[in-house]
Amino acid sequence: MSFQRIVVVGLILLVASAGWFVLGMTTEKRSTDSSSRLGEAVQALWGAPLVQQAPSFGVEIPGANRVRWLMPAENKLSVALQTDYRRKGLIWYPTYTADFDGSYTLTNTEDVAQKVRLHFDFPAKNGTYDRFTATLDGKKLLSPVNTAEGLNEMVELAPGMSTRFHVTYRARGMAAWRYGFDPQVGRVQNLDLSVKTNFEAVDYPEGCLSPMSAQAAPEGGVMLAWQASDLITREGIGVIIPEKLNPGPLTSRITYFAPVCLIFFFVLVGTINIIYKVDIHPMHYLFVAAGFFAFHLLLAYMAGLILIHVAFLISAVVSVGLVTTYLSAALRGQFPWKVAAAGQVFFLVLFSYSFFLKGITGLTVAIGSVVTLAVLMRVTAHVDWNEVFAKKPALPVAVPAPPPLPQV
What we know:
The chain is α+β, with helices and mostly antiparallel strands. The protein has two domains: 3-32 and 246-388, no CATH class; 46-240, Immunoglobulin-like (Sandwich). Helix content is 38%, strand content 28%. The protein has helices at residues 3-45, 247-256, 258-275, 282-302, 308-330, 337-353, 361-379, 385-388, and strands at 50-53, 56-60, 67-70, 74-83, 86-88, 91-93, 95-107, 114-120, 129-136, 139-140, 151-157, 162-174, 176-180, 187-197, 213-216, 222-232, 237-240. A hairpin with a 5-residue loop joins strand 15 (213-216) and strand 16 (222-232). Helix 1 runs parallel beside helix 4 (282-302) and helix 4 (282-302) packs antiparallel against helix 5 (308-330). The two termini are 55 Å apart.
């Protein structure tokens, strides 16, 4: 293998990398445009992230332009979150339904009767609410409702009297669900809040309280619980809906990583060139790079039409078949095609599939790199590199014999 050929192969690698960069940028732009354009449409059709605020209870002080805020004696809430993913273009959106059931007990501890103004905010101003009920001591509140302004009621409590405000509904949201305590009070008594999910990958928004307990539910999912007898906090409670594997961003990351896969495979081909003494021309490297590129090109455009795993399998089979059959045919059976096929499956398919496994992509590539290094060191340990890179003597040029002189 001459130095000139190494330079040409390096140029082929640079050209292929530029092609992958353009393809990755195109796929990323398609995903970004799809996310920004369709995300608002999904939110309008399905719902925004739900943020449920605790109801407020206030007593207007006669003769003063201020309100004395009351604190419920008991806060008992249960929420059921069910994922219902929606796909638009290359993006899966983490949509869900939330069944909310909240019960608040208010007690008049004063020696005089009090008129309490109850205010309840809906979690989304323009949201849609099914199975909605609101009761005071079991009596339904049938007044008109404006979700933008919330629910307002006046309650008169005699000394020592208690009232129970109960509200239930089903709503649809996206990305996360939150519950915020009344900021006017800053204190919560006898809190008992449970959240049941149908997913196990539970995470919590920044600035929210972690649950006091988290247990696997018998029918699947997780049961989360927040309990406190007397809690003072400015933080709320929340659950992040896990995102589904998105084809667009995933194929972009795989495409950007493609030059690394090709470098490993070029090293394998070069090693075969040295050990098996197969004359591999730079044009062979060029067509191999094109076969690798076919994998990412097919994956980028099939991922938006069929399941991502099916698209990945089809692209891998096509690419491995192209490269393996080409090398076998172009080098007339001298090339060990089984080694080439195994190498492409390892460097292209396995490395690319590691991006499906969130959190261990780097570890997979690191282990693969070390294994590759160990194999190369083993098989080339006895190679005479001086002979490999020695300049081959120029072949003598045959000089045609001069024509015979004419006879006199």
